[in-house]
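Q: Give me a backbone?
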Amino acid sequence: MQTTEQLKTVKFYSGEVTPLEMHKVRVVQKLTLLPIEERKQAIFGAGFNTFLLQNKDVYLDMLTDSGTNAMSDNQVAAMSVADDSYAGSASYYKLEKAIKEVFNQKYFLPVHQGRAAEHIISKVFVQPGKVIPMNYHFTTTKAHFEMAGGVVEEIYTDEALKIKSSFPFKGNMDIAKLNAVIAKWGAQNVAFIRFEAGTNLIGGQPFSMQNLREVSAIARTHGIKLLMDTSLINENLYFIKIREQGYQDKPLKEILHEMLSYTDFSYFSGRKVTCTRGGGICTNNHDIYMQMRDLVPLFEGFLTYGGMSVREIEAMAVGLYETLDFDVISHSPTFIKYLVDSLDRRGIPVITPAGGLGCHLDARAFVSHLPQTQYPAGALAAALYIAAGVRGMERGTISSVRDADGNDVLADVELLRLAFPRRVFTLSQIKYVEDRTQWLYDNRHLIGGLEWTEEPPVLRFFVGKLKPIGNWVDKLVAKFRLDLGDSL
């Protein structure tokens, strides 16, 4: 008998188990694969920052799944019936209805994207000296909370930072550490507890329902609010259903309602959870809603659009309902698992078990000859682009900050994230990534470090520029030509 996890894979006659696309492609976008010399020029022009590459120079864009997911035919069709009203748009009330039915939340505040929600939440609930315990931080979240004077306490479990592991819920919060933080600071000084669904920076790793239930009980005992970032809730929902005992046969809607029942309020980036631009804050607590309501017109737009296009609002409503479609939420995780398992079998260091969001290469092990002060994850991101035209995202020390003395705060993990936008890539493209990653691993000794040429003081990974230390790029290109000739 097949399990839920096996339903979207097929065993070939050859014995290979392969994920199946449960959709057909009806609209296509032309891609370009530049020759390696042009890729070399492009990465130099981008300051060895994959964020600054032009999309025309990228073959496979695995930078992020934010705003890059493919919308469904029903979402595109919904955009054509949008109600262009500044206030009281019928499109907004469709979205509000979807929020109530899918998330089981009474109150909704629309914003233009996830970090706008973080801004409003910070304005209302984070004051100087308040502490925010969380299972792991995200870059913009931490920046917003700290700019408001808050103190972030990460209370992840011992399993969270293990690269190779079989533990299914590495996004869990450590209960003993949570109790210790509350005892240290006092419950009155805890702004809220933040739970991130699908911990982004440690490999898209999920938390379990049991862990969420335990954290919620502690929060309610102490009168502390529980906030959830639901941007990657699709993947966390998927993993609870296939990995957690007692949930395999439960409907997705029932699991999702239980997850959110343990929270006091939540927020999301529509670019991730619904494949559309926009976002929102949700709650069943009227007082929490009222504390934030008046900031939406001030910072975002009126309450029935919140900085979003009404066309995006229509598509978002449809996308929320698609969250309850197993074919939709299983696509990226099954493709990610295919690549992770394949690379792991080859001895290439990747985070296991496969999570949501993307395949994460362990740059510290991949280029173990590079110290963290030479930004191994950033160097690996640049090297993979040169070798393959694949744009990934550095999730390591470049994405970190400097301390008061000007020294790098070294990241807990050095990762190159290869994101899987939903319904975008074909299996042949994933096999190409697999092949070029193998070549790069076999020639990893050629990869050198990076140093800053232009370093912004805040969120430097977005627009900062670096350069290679030495002439390692020329050596890498020469070896590529020797091994693969004129192959792109």
